[in-house]
Amino acid sequence: MRFNNPPVNTLSLEFLTELVISLEKLENDKSFRGLIITSDRPGVFSAGLDLREMCGRSPAHYAEYWKAVQELWLRLYQSSLVLVAAINGACPAGGCLMALTSDHRILADNPKYSIGLNETLLGIVAPFWFKDTLVNTIGHRAAERALQLGLLFPPAQALQVGIVDQVVPEERVQSVALSAIAQWMAIPDHARQLTKAMMRKATASRLITHRDEDVQNFVSFISRDSIQKSLQLYLERLKQKKG
Amino acid sequence: PDASAGVAVMRFNNPPVNTLSLEFLTELVISLEKLENDKSFRGLIITSDRPGVFSAGLDLREMCGRSPAHYAEYWKAVQELWLRLYQSSLVLVAAINGACPAGGCLMALTSDHRILADNPKYSIGLNETLLGIVAPFWFKDTLVNTIGHRAAERALQLGLLFPPAQALQVGIVDQVVPEERVQSVALSAIAQWMAIPDHARQLTKAMMRKATASRLITHRDEDVQNFVSFISRDSIQKSLQLYLERLKQKKG
């Protein structure tokens, strides 16, 4: 699956919906047991959540958007497919979240390609299920530090902290992803799927059992004047950088 | 900009070794409360004014040869200190400039960031088992959150006190620096944390720590009763008295 939502694979409501539909098709197609997620946009894996969906909109829209974000995470995190992330570009926030749902993460060795959950830098807070996914990957202490400081790890540090599993030369990312996925797909599929579900069930349940509450919390939080101001300021700065 | 703006420094000074007596615990909690309520402070560095020791930990004389009511009062105060430190909205940095066993280690573990002076005499860890007692579950939870389950299982059972190199390797501290640089490194570190939008940082910290804090909060009275029963046991009292005797002999 090569993400192609120009310019930077931002997770707009439309793109989220496309991704979920594609995932569902793959899950139902017995001829596919593995999925490599990667980017078709130069220099970026995914820039993450679309701030324009979270800024200056109605509460009903925020709710619809957040449900779609939850849906993508649940589908990726609980996928019965082997999921490998071939991270060939910058990977902040929502992009990092997608990578973290994978069974295996390969990052291209390019100092411009950092990965992490940097929400605090934008004045917002990563939801608890983003936090859970990160803790499951790098441990509690490292996650506590990474989340509060909004750290974006360049390749060497990303490997050291364990947020990715491999760092390889940029031109080899896709071929290494194919080798890696073959290793996972060599395992008896039934046993592998049940084991994956067992590992991830508790974490997924924490969102599933509080899904509506989580949407309401998001809507309340994102609607706050102070948060809207933070986001608008950030969007302004982004525009100035481009122009 | 003044690197120390908005940063308070608390220098433990309870001679001789910053033992956490009931009186000292109460002072610490009061000081913490004042800082939390004072909007001009967003960060706190905890460190020691006593040479060679950060804090020797819980005061065994509060736990030995006293009444059950006293044990209960003491334990509530220990719980209160941990809850206040662990859930502090301030950025908390521990500048560990001395030996840091048991209760001292617990205070360091509540911090957002731990810096240990590179002195082989300054070891850090939860060594309760060496005294014949057991670290409470919330000491254990804080340790597991910091160094992981397996390392905590080993460290707690063996009562390990990690000297600086091993402390860094196992992850019980985040940095080891030359002794004379501990305070300045603490100031640099705290500046990095305080550069983050405070609202977002506080909510994130609370989200990370809520479950662990709740486990004590929802069982607080039960935990006090368990402590009182445990510490009142003849065998435990004997253990502690023996340990106190040995300490007296070492001094004398």
Question: Can you give a write-up of this model?
Answer:
Chain A: This is Enoyl-CoA delta isomerase 1, mitochondrial. Chain A: InterPro entries: ClpP/crotonase-like_dom_sf, Enoyl-CoA_hydra/iso. Chain A: Homotrimer. Chain A: One of its GO terms (biological process) is fatty acid beta-oxidation. Two copies of one chain form a homodimer. With 243 residues, chain A is α/β, with parallel strands linked by helices. Chain A has helices spanning 13-28, 59-77, 93-100, 128-138, 140-149, 155-161, 173-185, 189-208, 211-223, 225-242, and strands at residues 2-3, 10-11, 34-39, 48-49, 82-87, 91-92, 104-108, 115-116, 166-168. The first copy, chain A, contains ten helices and nine strands. In chain A, 56% of the residues lie in helices and 12% in strands. In chain A, the strands form three sheets. Chain A has a five-stranded parallel sheet with strand order 1-3-5-7-9, sandwiched between helices. Chain A has a two-stranded parallel sheet with strand order 2-4. A two-stranded parallel sheet of chain A has the order 6-8. The two termini of chain A are 31 Å apart. The model of chain A has no long low-confidence stretch (mean pLDDT 97). The first copy, chain A, is globular, with a radius of gyration of 17 Å. In chain A, helix 2 (59-77) packs across helix 9 (211-223). Chain A has one domain (2-241): 2-enoyl-CoA Hydratase, Chain A, domain 1 (Alpha-Beta Complex), CATH 3.90.226.10. At the A-B interface, helix 5 of A face helix 4 and helix 8 of B.
